Amino acid sequence: MAKTNNNILTILGIDIEPGASKEASFDVAKLHTSSSVNVPVIIERSKKPGPTVLFTAGIHGDEVNGVEIVRQLIAKGINKPKCGTIICIPVINIFGFINLKREFPDGRDLNRSFPGSAEGSLASRVAHKLIHEIVPYVDYIIDFHTGGSGRFNAPQLRIVKDDKPLNDLAKVFGAPFVLYSKNLNKSFRNTCYKLGKPLLLFEGGKSFHIDPIVTNYGVNGSKRILHHLGMLNSKFKVSAPKKDCVYVDESRWQRAHLSGMFKASIKIGANVKKGDVIGNITDPYGKLNYFVKAESSGYIINVNESPIVYQGDALFHITTKLKF
How far, in Å, CA of 252 to CA of 318, rounded? Predict the structure, then answer.
C-alpha cells in the first residue's frame, strides 16, 4: 500500500524521499514458466513540493505507440520534475505486451476489469493493485492508447462532456481533436472519474505500430501539462499546438457496403464534405472498383488501414457534430 510519512512517499514497498529517483516493481504474478515478471514503475520526486502526475500506457498489450510516448518522457528526462512527483508506468499489461496480444493470457481485457479484485482474475488483480496502491496518491493521470484492429486514430483526447477541470486540461494538452465520450463501465477512466482523479485519455495511431507524428503529439502535450502545473524543467521548451483543437460532440462510423480490397484515399484528420470520394474497394480480379463516398460532412478521426475488409466493417470514423 502506498503511504506518506514525514514527506516520504512509499509505493510498492519502496520509500521515495524528496529529490529521489527510484524504481519500484509492479509485480502481480509470474509467467507460466515460473519466471518473474518485473514491471518497472519509475518515480521521480523533486525536493520542492507539488502535484503528483501519473503517466500510464500499455493497458492493452498491442498498443505500443503509447509505450513509446512514456518511454520518451523517461529517456529525455521530461519525467524529472521541477516540483512535485512524476510516476511513469510504460507497460501496465506486461503479459499482453510479452505475447503481442491486446488482452491478458486468459482473454480478459484489462480496461474492462476495473476497479478489480485482489482475489479475481489476473487482469482483475492488476487493476486492483493499480487502483489501490498507486492511484490514491496521484493528482493527475494521462493514459495513452492507440486504435485497434488496423484502425488508425487521429491524435485525440477522450473526456466526458461538461467536466470543466478536464476540459481545461485538454485545452492545455493541445491535441488536434477532443472527442466527448461517455466513460465505459469497468474502464480505468471511469474508475478514476469516480475516485475524483482527473484523467486524460490520449488516443493516437494504431496497434503494433509506432508513428512519429502521434508520438510527438503525446510527448508535446505531456510537456504542456507539466508546464501548466509548474513541474516542467526549464531546460525543455514548450511549443504551442500546431492548429486549433476541434471539439467533437458526436461522430459516427461509416461502414463498408461491399467486401474486398480496401484503400483509403483521404488523410487522417482531413475535413471532408458529404459525397467526397474518400477510398475505394476492389476485388482481386480487376472486375470491381467501388468508390467509397463520405456519407456525411466532417473530420476523419479514424481510418481503417486493413487491406482486406468485409461488408459491414468500419472504414472511417467521421465527426458529425462539433462544439465551437
Answer: 6
pLDDT tens across 29-56, in order? Answer: 888 888 888 889 999 999 999 999 999 9
Mean pLDDT of the 240-259 span = 94
Measured torsion, CA atoms of residues 212, 217, 223, 229, in degrees rounded to the nearest 10: -160
Write out the residue limits of the CATH 3.40.630.10 domain(s) in the chain.
3-228
Distance CA 181, CA 163 (A): 12
Continuous H helices in the chain: 64-75, 94-99, 122-133, 164-173, 188-194, 212-228
CA nearest neighbour of 87 among 168, 26, 5, 172? 26
Q: Is the Cβ–Cβ distance between 65 and 205 less than 8 Å? A: yes
Q: What are phi and psi of 318, to 5 degrees?
A: -120, 130
Strand-pairing partners, residue 23, are: 42
pLDDT (tens digit per residue) in 175-227: 999 999 999 999 999 999 999 999 999 999 999 999 999 999 999 999 999 99
Topology (CATH) of 251-323: OB fold (Dihydrolipoamide Acetyltransferase, E2P) (2.40.50)
Parts of the chain belonging to CATH 2.40.50.100:
251-323
Fold of 3-228: Aminopeptidase (3.40.630)
pLDDT at residue 6, as a whole number: 66
Residue 1 has pLDDT above 70, yes or no: no
Distances (CA, A) of 41 to 87, 136, 173, 174: 7, 15, 23, 27
Cβ atoms of 53 and 138 within 8 Å: the answer is yes
- String of b and e for 6-36 (b: at least 16 CB within 10 Å)? eeebbbbeeebeeebebebebebeeeeeeee
Separation of alpha carbons 232 and 222, rounded Å: 10
Report the SS3 class of residue 284.
coil
> Is the full-model pTM beyond 0.90?
yes
Return the C-alpha cell found at 148: 485497434
